[in-house]
Please model this.
Amino acid sequence: MTSSAPPPDLNANPTDLDISCPLCEYNLRGLSEPRCPECGYKFVWAQLIDATRSAHPYLFEVQRRKVWSFWKTLVGGLRPVRFWKKLKPAHRGNLRRLFLYWLITGLIGLAAAFALDRVVESLLPALLTRYTTNTYTYGLAPRPLLFYSSTPDSVDFEIGFYSLHFQVREVAVIYAGTILIWPTLTLLALLIFQQSMARAKIRTHHLFRCVIYSADVVIWGSFFCMAVLAAYAALVLGGGQGFSMLEVYLYTCTGIVTLFCIRLGVALHFYLQMDHPFWTVLTTQVLVALAIVTAFVAASVA
Model:
């Protein structure tokens, strides 16, 4: 993603410059129309030359102030249309830093999943002593169940403890899998369309950009889950019965996937100038869902 070629002269005649298309690297020298004949990428000569000469003002890939640029990139993604209009394919990048950004967002998401498992496990004894007959009142997954004793040393209590712990761990795994596996499978699904993209010869690192900067929404979902988890712990320790943390995490998974798809569609439209971007995203999500269902069926049969 980093070019060693000297930057073009902004004042020179664009038709006399050896400038490559940022999407497919086709040489644009001698073109009178600002449109790549190879991939169809439309541009403005001055903007293309300026983006080739300069770095993005805050993108994590290129800025040396890592913490500042990470935060600016993360916040900038909250307005995806503006973000992808400002980020041009001609902007220099660094593939290693791009994957580092993805790694950091994934680690924060894993921290949220780990926190769910650890915090709720530590609170389960206090929650399970607040049973009422035939119904859980601990707030994790309220629904009619068998009769449970409220005596901590009873067999029923032990059965209830491990049953609830299993539910919590299951949801933690689902959450971790969503934030890590879903964007990865989406990227692989986009690469399946490489044959159609081969016609346009779009470079793969541009797909990486679209997916990774769209997937950083997992950080905001994880921050939200950890804040709710802290409120949940405070409520339980204060004598309350809590609320459904399992539902919070499952609904957050749904929200993360939905926002990821919307942001990816915006990226494909404004950054790659792809035709029917949201239909492309929908197709990839169908492939991802089928892959996950197939994996679950295969695991259950094995």
Q: What stands out?
A: Residues 7-11, 131-161 have pLDDT under 50 and may be disordered. The chain is about 65% helix and 0% strand. Residues 1-54 form one domain.
